[in-house]
Amino acid sequence: MENKREIMAQIVALLTQLIGNESDTQKDKPPERSAEPVEMLTIKECTQAVSGLSEHTVRQLVAQHKIPYIRTGQGKRGKILISKAALLEYLGGAA
To answer: For residues 45 and 91, is the Cβ–Cβ distance under 8 A?
Structure first.
C-alpha cells in the first residue's frame, strides 16, 4: 500500500511539473507577428503578378480552398483578397 502511495505521489509531481512547464513557456513567448505588412492582391492583381495565370484559375483555387483568402464586403459580392506570399508559395510548390 505504501508503494502505491509513493508511485502516485511521483506521478502527481511529474504531472504538476509538466503542466507548470507548459504554462511557463506560453507566458514567456509573446504572440508571433510578422514585422512586415502582408501584401494582399485582388484576383486581377494576381494575374498581373504571375504571368500565364488566368482569373478563372485563381477563382478555382479560391473555390477549392487551395489558397487562403479573405472576402471584404458582404456576401458573394465582396472583393476577394489573396496574400501574395501565399499565392507564390502555392504556385512554387505546385510546379
So the answer is: no
End-to-end CA distance of the chain: 65
Q: Are 62 and 69 in contact (CB under 8 A)?
A: yes
Contacts by residues 74-81 (CB-CB < 8 Å, ≥ 24 positions apart): 79/42, 80/42, 80/43, 81/40, 81/41, 81/42
Q: Tens digit of pLDDT for each residue in 44-83?
A: 999 999 999 999 999 999 999 999 999 998 888 889 999 9
* Residue that the C-alpha cell 484559375 belongs to: 57
d(CA 52, CA 46): 10
Mean pLDDT of 23-36: 59
Would you say the pTM of this structure is higher than 0.90?
Answer: no
